[in-house]
Design brief:
Blueprint lengths: L12 H4 L7 H11 L14 E5 L8 H17 L3 E5 L9 H6 L6 E5 L3 H6 L7 H5 L9 H6 L11 E7 L1 E5 H6 L11 H11 L5 E3 L7 H12 L17 H16 L11 H9 L3 E6 L4 H6 L8 E4 L8 E11 L5 H16 L1 H13 L14 H13 L9 H4 L4 E4 L5 H17 L5 H19 L2
Parallel strand pairs: 1-2, 6-7, 9-10
Antiparallel strand pairs: 3-9, 4-9, 5-7, 5-8
Length: 461
Amino acid sequence: MDSTFRKAPFLDRRDFLRYSATLGAGLMSLEALAACGSTAPAATTASGGTASINSLPPTNEPDAVKEFNATIQAFQKAYPGEKIIAKNDPYDPTTYFAKLAAGQVEDATESYFTEPPLMIQKHAAADITSLAKGWKYFASYDPSIQSIITDPATGKIYGIPADGYALTLWYNRKMFSAAGLDPDKPPTTWDQFRAYAKELKTATVAGYAETSAQNQGGWHFTNWMYTAGGDMQSADGKKALFNSAQGTSVLQLLHDMRFTDQSMTKQQLYTQTDLLQLLATNKVAMVVMAPDEMTSFKFQYQANLDNYGIGPMPQNGGNASLTGGNVFVFNPKSAQNVLKTAVDFVLYSKFDLGALENQYKNANSNGRLVGLPINVIFVGEFRQKLNDLANKYKNVPVQNYQPFASSTLKLRAEPRNQTQKMYAQLDSVMQAVLTNANANPQSLLDQAAQQFQQVLDQSGS
């Protein structure tokens, strides 16, 4: 979902992070489907087609529904013979595979970056290689984003990334100035970050606050791990690697900030919803957040966006930050002409510059945010075209986001195997180092890695 015109940018990531997903019966029922053969779509020479898509906004967002339907009408005019049936049927990882086996999944399903690897493995997504590579901007995807929807064994393509985020450092610009720090130069290294947090803390303000609940502690730990250059899992997803020197250094940094520097909040077990409230009410100076959350920050918490900046994640040798987002996958049972219609519509609704201009224009006129630094999944000329178009209708202080927008950090996707269970395992680790002054980071990680390795071993059996 394009965060410039949808009330809730991306599928509800905060709700999804609560899952320690167990797919169980859904996966077992899918084995019968997998036994039928290849995921390649059935060959057909028919032109045109009617495709269903799951991403119609809910009825309590009438403006978004109206805009979505207008996009469908414009698409059908631009692509004669191709028709779209839109449904509000949000992706659910606990039911998708069972629904697919029962023939109840739409032709195009908007899902999460974490999902395609398992779908590819279970033959639960269509091979759309020729359709995807036929789009002139497909090569403009960041390589790390392309890898999400690519079978590493065959190189075939199984999805269309729709939108994404990179975790970033949000900060209060007024607090920076009051502490004698340049609000246009947020910290870019761990050492600077720790020093800034100490400078920013006061009797009523914490320098930094961190998440450690509802799988978000593990999510943020992964992000910090990437800034240190570490890995969470082996490339094949079969071995837990997070109990490394880099992993220990992440926990030691946070532990020292909490107990030695006392630059973090005393209360813990936060989620990112809590962090938004703390930042909006001037109780913390810095948090880690994705830029799309500015929508909630402004409208739910009434934050004055002029007072806040976005910078890249501080680094300690990794030159990277975590990326996530939404991706469309396609029904492997759908006919080729139906798949073509579905792919054509996804590309048109998400990336046609004329369609986007209408969406940005409508978003601006309806008071929704335009101009946030969210076009992270592309590189080069196409990314610049998207940014230029958004800036034409901007209604946010884009200059405050320049430190992030001009950064050159690599994007690293979330680990590909049992991601949510891993995050849940690491929540308790994050909670321990942030609440126990005597916590031993290495011991905590060793225990968590041992327990999560059992999950990985069972998933491969």
